[in-house]
Amino acid sequence: MVRNVADAADPPKPRTPEMQVWSPDQLRAFLNHVQADRLCAAWLLAVTTGMRRGEILGLRWSDLDLEAGRVAVRRPRIVVDYRAGLGAAMPPGAEPRARACETLGGV
Predict the structure, then answer these.
(1) In a domain? residue 18
(2) How far apart are CA 51 and CA 41, in angstroms?
(3) Residue 16: inside a domain, yes or no?
(4) What is the domain range of residue 106?
(5) Residues 31 and 43 sit within 8 Å (Cβ to Cβ)
(6) In terms of DSSP H, where are the helices of 15-96?
(7) C-alpha gyration radius of the chain
(8) The pLDDT of residue 34
(9) Which of 18, 34, 76, 94 has its CA 20 to 30 A from that of 64?
(10) What DSSP designation does 8 have?
(11) Is residue 95 part of a domain?
């Protein structure tokens, strides 16, 4: 075999679906709907900070600074082989993720 003819072919480009976001009215309706839900705080963090599900589920009280109104992502939850577990902890002295959020003031 001298050459692979597949090298000359152009691979198909994946179609990226257009991102759909809620309008402010839809978001307000959602937050009103989940107000009595036991996970209301998690929903509020998700929609106001952009935190991922694993980041929210991995939060501990020590990750919250209620006086400063900050939350820091230090140890997210991960799923491997359909089993949930904790991600690697931050090494001592390391800063938490740069995505620390300062949105707890109005909550």
Answers:
(1) no
(2) 12
(3) no
(4) 23-107
(5) yes
(6) 24-33, 40-49, 53-57
(7) 20
(8) 95
(9) 34
(10) G
(11) yes
Residue with tokens 């929609």: 47
Say which amino acid occupies 104: L
Question: Whole-model pTM above 0.70?
Answer: no
Contact 68, 101 (CB under 8 A): no
Tally of domains in the chain? 1
Write down the pLDDT at residue 86.
Answer: 67
pLDDT value for 97: 53
How many helices (H) and strands (E) are present in the chain, helices listed first? 3, 4
Q: Is residue 4 a part of any domain in this protein?
A: no
Helix 40-49 / helix 24-33 crossing angle, nearest 10 deg? 160
Contact 33, 53 (CB under 8 A): no
Structure tokens at 6: 């597949």
Distance of alpha carbon 9 from alpha carbon 14, whole angstroms: 15
CA 28 – CA 47 distance, rounded (Å):
10
Phi, psi values for residue 37, rounded to 5°: -70, 145
pLDDT value at residue 98? 41
